[in-house]
Design goal:
binds 3-phosphoglyceric acid, alpha/beta, TIM Barrel
Length: 207
């Protein structure tokens, strides 16, 4: 993974996962892979997130593991050390962006307005996360950015489901979307890997 645009090419859906138990990490990643999904974004929102990410990087090498919810300086380096191959943020500060640049990893920095997108473009970003997609104006807002910002690519995330996914994936400035619906907490807790695989298969087919 050398560039942020390569993240967008991993498939139509980036599963955004919140782990509460490290033991769920490997079977969840394997279920996603069996369903045809080639990447997993582990959100740094729980104490087990980094060890979960580390397990996936070490034990499921065929899936491209990224770290999401990078919100504080230091987390980018921790995620890189744990084996993350890309980084995702919900929003940006200069300090956070500098920290991410230091890791050398490709990233999808989060934006929700045209001004934020322009600021990131000035720093050389080509691909951005649009977050939180639905509350920020959804597919209609993103579509309206194609005219003034034709060179920017977006991965919308936040409030996206299998039902509204096609309205985003049909936009000219969207290659993939992100969402947590592939890995519901109830399925992870129950160890229902067949369900995760089925949701992954349905998502992979959105492409
Ligand atoms: C994220 O961090 O990208 C979002 O929390 C995922 O949003 P969702 O749970 O609405 O899919």
């Amino acid at each position: 993974m050398n560039s942020a645009t390569e993240i967008l090419e991993l498939g139509p859906v980036v599963p955004v996962v919140v782990f509460t138990d490290t033991e769920h990490a490997v079977p969840a990643a394997q279920a996603l892979l069996r369903g045809g999904i080639r990447t997993i974004e582990v959100t740094l929102r729980t104490p087990v997130a980094l060890p979960a990410l580390e397990r996936i990087a070490a034990e499921v090498p065929d899936i491209v593991v990224g770290a999401g919810t990078i919100t504080e300086p230091g987390q980018a380096h921790e995620a890189a050390e744990a084996g993350a191959r890309y980084l995702v943020t919900p929003g940006c500060t200069e300090r956070l962006l500098d920290d991410i640049d230091d890791t050398g990893l490709p990233a999808l920095p989060g934006v929700s307005t045209a001004s934020e997108a322009l600021r990131l473009a000035e720093r050389g970003a080509q691909a951005l996360k649009f977050f939180p997609a639905e509350p920020s104006g959804g597919a209609a807002y993103l579509k309206s950015l194609t005219g003034p910002l034709p060179n920017l690519r977006f991965c919308p995330t936040g409030g996206i489901t299998a039902d509204n996914a096609p309205s985003y994936l049909s936009l000219p400035n969207v290659d993939c979307i992100g969402g947590s619906w592939l890995t519901p907490g109830s399925a992870l807790a129950a160890g229902d890997w067949d369900h995760v695989e089925a949701l992954a298969r349905q998502a992979a087919e959105l492409g």
